[in-house]
């Protein structure tokens, strides 16, 4: 098994005796886009500051890129925290050349990162002429200079319009494949990160209450086909013979468990063929958000 790119074990952090993190465990697999979710004030930014070595945990262990965070070479991690300060009177290339000289990188690095964020053509334009989405892409380009193996982003789509959000999402999504960069991205919106993440961790009450790959989550989600019929018992017998699993709710309604959407015509045809009157069929697949909320309640 690969070493997690971020591994937090039992981390705690209090501010003026007020506990914010109360035994936080996080395991971020390599080459993942890990969405770190939590409501406002749950401690996402605090965690991110600890991952970047800007804040020390009171107790517990924090490993980033296989090393204790205190020993980490910070140049191996790219980050956007808070609103990035972009100098409006500079062109994008001039702006990136500041980071290039600080990090002592080759000139070609500017062209590489501009290409990655699709800003090659706008490279010689002043930042003051950029849209908010372009500015955020430029901030991403800056964070990607030096080809970091890990990118840590604190709410990178905050304040962007839907198109800007989509641009950033598409960019982030392709980073593991394109440049072997893992991404740890905080957000308070599950439906927003669902479109780009491969893994999700949910922070609540100072702990991670759920951590899962999205693939696993999707497999766990149970869809149902609710049928209103003349006799649920008869319908259940007919469907059992046809290989469907059902749960009877009332004498006149039952749920078919985990049907795929394409099976609905077959289910209804089976019933009609055997003389079971069907009044209504309603297909339901929970959203990821509903699944997480219910898993959370069960785990609580
Ligand atoms: N330097 C600090 N001093 C005192 N309290 C702090 C400090 N930094 C954060 N806190 C408190 O810790 C809690 C968590 O804050 P944090 O900014 O980490 O949450 P968050 O999940 O990032 O919230 P948001 O989504 O609103 O940014 C809040 O109650 C905040 O007031």
Provide keyphrases for this structure.
Rossmann fold, 6-stranded mixed sheet, Alpha-Beta Plaits, 4-stranded antiparallel sheet, ABC_transporter-like_ATP-bd, ATP-binding cassette domain-containing protein, alpha/beta, 10 helices, elongated, binds adenosine-5'-triphosphate, 2 domains, AAA+_ATPase, 300 residues, 34% helix, transport
Low-confidence stretches: none
- Look at the structure and give the mean pLDDT: 89
Report the end-to-end length measured between terminal Cα atoms.
Answer: 29 Å
CATH topology of the largest domain: Rossmann fold
Beta fraction of the residues?
A: 25-35%
As a whole number of angstroms, the C-alpha radius of gyration is 25 Å
How many helices does DSSP assign?
Answer: 10
What ions, cofactors and ligands are bound? adenosine-5'-triphosphate
Strand ordering within the main sheet: 6-7-8-3-9-10
Structural class: alpha/beta
Provide the helix percentage: 25-40%
Count of distinct strands = 14
Biggest sheet layout: 6 strands, mixed
Shape: elongated
Explain what the structure shows:
With about 300 residues, the protein is an alpha/beta fold. About 35% of the residues are buried. Strand 9 and strand 10 form a beta hairpin. Adenosine-5'-triphosphate binds next to helix 1.
């Amino acid at each position: 098994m690969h070493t997690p790119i971020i591994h937090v074990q039992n981390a705690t952090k209090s501010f003026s005796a007020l506990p914010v993190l109360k035994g936080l465990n996080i395991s971020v697999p390599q080459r993942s886009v890990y969405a770190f979710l939590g409501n406002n004030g749950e401690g996402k930014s605090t965690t991110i500051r600890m991952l970047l070595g800007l804040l020390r945990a009171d107790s517990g262990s924090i490993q980033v890129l296989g090393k204790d965070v205190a020993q980490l070479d910070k140049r191996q991690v790219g980050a956007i925290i808070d609103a990035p300060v972009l100098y409006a009177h500079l062109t994008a290339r001039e702006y990136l050349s500041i980071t290039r000289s600080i990090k002592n990188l080759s000139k070609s690095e500017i062209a590489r990162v501009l290409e990655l964020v699709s800003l090659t053509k706008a490279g010689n334009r002043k930042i003051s002429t950029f849209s908010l989405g372009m500015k955020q892409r430029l901030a991403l380009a800056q964070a990607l200079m030096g080809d970091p193996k890990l990118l840590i982003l604190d709410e990178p789509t905050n304040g962007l319009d839907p198109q800007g959000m989509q641009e950033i999402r598409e960019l982030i999504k392709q980073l593991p494949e394109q440049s072997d960069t893992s991404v740890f991205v905080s957000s308070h919106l599950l439906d927003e990160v669902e479109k780009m993440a491969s893994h999700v961790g949910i922070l609540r009450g100072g702990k991670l209450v759920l951590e899962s790959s999205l693939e696993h989550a999707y497999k766990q989600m149970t869809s149902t086909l609710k049928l209103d019929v003349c006799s649920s018992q008869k319908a259940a017998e007919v469907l059992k013979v046809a290989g469907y699993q059902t749960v009877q709710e009332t004498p006149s309604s039952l749920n078919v468990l985990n049907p795929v959407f394409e099976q609905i015509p077959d289910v209804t045809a089976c019933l009609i063929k055997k003389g079971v009157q069907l009044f209504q069929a309603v297909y339901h697949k929970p959203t990821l958000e509903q699944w997480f909320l219910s898993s959370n309640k069960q785990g609580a």
